[in-house]
Amino acid sequence: MTASQSQKYRAEPADQMLVTPLDSLTLVYQRRSGITHFVAEPAPEILAAMGSDILTADEVAQRLAAEFDFDGTQALDIIAARLNELADLGLVERCHA
To answer: Measured between alpha carbons, how far is 1 from 58 in angstroms, rounded to an integer?
Structure first.
């Protein structure tokens, strides 16, 4: 597991986001910042899988794998990269243990 995969993340609280699917994109309005983000799969699924928990990329991958029936280890690098992108957008927070 790489350092980016062991990093823990917490999603913006669900009551602070308004999530609206729009064709192949999803709009995520962040109440705190007043910014609407346009995101694509698997970002909305990652946010939903995280809920209010503090998770690593591996834990998110396992939740998604259970929900969507795929091998979470194969998608781990992709999920870790998306979590970093969501953190850069401010939709998830990097947590320091």
So the answer is: 9
Give, for all 97 residues of the chain, the pLDDT tens digit. 565 557 999 999 999 999 999 999 999 999 999 999 999 999 999 999 999 999 999 999 999 998 888 876 788 999 999 999 999 999 999 998 6
Instruction: Name which of 63, 62, 70, 60 is nearest 4 in CA terms.
Output: 60
Angle 49-97-83 (CA atoms, 0-180°, nearest 5)?
Answer: 35
Ordered alpha helix ranges (H), 35-75: 43-50, 57-68
- Whole-number Cα distances in Å, 56 to 30, 34, 46, 47: 22, 27, 11, 13
- What pTM, to 2 d.p., does this model score? 0.88
